[in-house]
Amino acid sequence: MSRPPFKIGGKSIPIGTRQFVELDVAALFDLTKISIPLEIIHGKLDGPTVFISAAIHGDEINGIEIIKKLRNNSALKNIKGTLILAPIVNVFGYNAKSRYLPDRRDLNRSFPGRMNGSLAGRMAHLFMKEIVRHCQYGIDLHTGAINRQNYPQIRADMRDEETEELVKSFGAPVVVNSRLRDGSLREAARKEGVKILLYEGGEALRFDDSTIKTGVKGCLSVLEHIGMIKNRRRKKSAQKKVFIAEGSQWLRAPHSGSYQTTKKLGETISKGEEIAVITDPFGQIVGRVNATMDGLIVGMSSLPLVNQGDAMFHIAYFEDEGDLEEFEDVYDEEGMDEKN
Ligand SMILES: [Zn+2]
Which of 206, 238, 270 is the C-terminal boundary of a domain? Predict the structure, then answer.
């Protein structure tokens, strides 16, 4: 018994084919047409429907690169089910090298959106209607903000057992629990019963190799876990432990100035340890930043200039004291922290 073609954006994709589709959104002022580019891979055999999205924040480009590499992987030749690739959701922001839409709204605070709402609301509505509501699973790819680098990490609802399994199969080094943001794609998708992971790493407007590699591997592992692609042969040691943080906190600048640090992403720190010194224009020390807890650096500013109160280091902390030591053992030699 043959399964039906997949219908999206007014197109009908026959089974066993892959096709590019454009989802039309509002035009520019000069009426140049703007559309969200998609690729649909519609397998011959039944299976889950999954979306992988990137650049909902237009300047977060690591996810675009992840999808480019992923789509060429031979594992996607004979998938079960349907895979929807959406490398650039916020097409306006991407072209303007901006996180936001032209109306200065944040698309990822505008879900689920409304058909007759703002530009952001309409785009969110379109994405929900054409994509999310047809899926059982989703992976949303993000990058850190401008002048801020993030260690490869997952954000997901770890209270949901199946989502927790997906997180573990993705295999990013660390999970940082964060509350769901109002209006995020993640929240809207979860309300529709879609199991969703948010992956992020690196810095806006920059490619980060380790984030991209971990991301490609992670997406393939999740697709394998849910039965969309065949089990790939790999070494037993390839699947590494995923460390689940109990919480996280920002260390902020106690004083304005410029600062020096020897710390890198993915390094562990101990309570009381000095991790940066802030100096005045003549090099005299005006402030010291000390760790307020044992933890792991999962995010840090890449701009060495601060005003008092600016966020400098994002520290994840763990319930189990042994986790940090074990983390060093598992991830050190892979060079996951090579950022320069
Ligand atoms: Zn983002």
Answer: 238
- Which among 277, 266, 273, 268 has a CA at the least distance from the CA of 312? 277
Cα(60) to centroid(ligand 1), Å = 6
Ligand 1 centroid to 73 CA: how many Å?
25
pLDDT tens for the chain, 340 residues long, are 689 999 999 999 999 999 999 999 999 999 999 999 999 999 999 999 999 999 999 999 999 999 999 999 999 999 999 999 999 999 999 999 999 999 999 999 999 999 999 999 999 999 999 999 999 999 999 999 999 999 999 998 888 899 999 999 999 999 997 777 789 999 999 999 999 999 999 999 999 999 999 999 999 999 999 999 998 776 555 678 899 999 999 999 999 999 999 999 999 999 999 999 999 999 999 999 999 999 999 999 999 999 999 999 999 999 988 899 999 888 864 445 443 3
State in Å: Cα 56 to ligand 1 middle.
Answer: 7
Please give all residues whose CB falls under 5 A of ion ligand 1, grouped by chain where several chains appear.
57, 60, 142
How many domains in the chain? 2
Domain with 75, as residue range(s), is: 6-238
CA torsion sign for 324, 329, 334, 337 is positive
Measuring CA to CA, how many Å separate 2 from each of 16, 18, 19, 100, 183? 11, 17, 19, 43, 38
Please tell me the distance from the alpha carbon of residue 255 to that of residue 165, in angstroms, as a whole number. 43
pTM of the entire structure? 0.94
* 312 and 165 part of one domain: no
> Is residue 187 in some structural domain?
yes
**Ligand 1 mean position, distance from CA 286 (Å):** 34
